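Input sequence (151 aa), recorded before submission:
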Amino acid sequence: MLLHVKDAEAIESANRAIRELLNAHSEWFLTQNGGAPIALNSTEFDFSIAHRRLIFSSWTESGSRSWRVTAWSWTGEKLLLEASRRMGAEVAKLELVPRASAKAIVASIAAARQARCEKLAQIVAQTNPKPSYAACRFKRATPNPQHPTTW
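Predicted structure, token format:
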């Protein structure tokens, strides 16, 4: 649910809450109206209050842009902004999505692999209740000369 930014109290509250969210991450992706994302550092955009309005300023591929934020929402995964510029002639839906760190990506991949291994082990245990370890043979992985990308 979008929170509208109309009065001075709502503007101050929104500015404070948004800054707290932004301080948790240093890299973000910005999209405008569902377009291509732009990677931004936290130093490349800013929220400020000017003339009793919440202003979002950022660098884009076509230079610096400033938007008046009219409504905002945090979904837990991304910051949604309804904004306008040029005195309302241009209206946009902006999304700021935190960029995941490499450590978080590696950890999630490792967790997914572990879950798949456990699931495979359960399937094997169910299909073969009395395993014969003597019948198991392990082959050392060597590259296939005809297909260098396969083992």
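Checked by second reader. The chain has a mean pLDDT of 78.
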